[in-house]
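To: structure subgroup
Subject: Chain for Friday's discussion

All,

I'm putting the inputs and outputs inline so they're searchable in the archive.
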Amino acid sequence: MITAARVMNDEETYRRYSQELTRYATGLVGPFDAPDVVTDACLRAFDSPSWPEVVDRRAYLYRTVLSVATDHHRR
């Protein structure tokens, strides 16, 4: 069950890291696709069953951006 507190926490996490994740994604997929890759990665991370227990959320998001960027290149 997704609570209002969790949604707010996810929004705060996105606001805190989205700019630096977009810069990282730009190096991986280019400036046009980077914002979409970051959004997809964050949604994937936030929807993961393990997300509530993640201690280093920044590192988890960086790994997820890399995974989504890799998938992007495969398409």
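Points worth raising on Friday:
The mean pLDDT is 91.
The two ends are 33 Å apart (CA to CA).

D.
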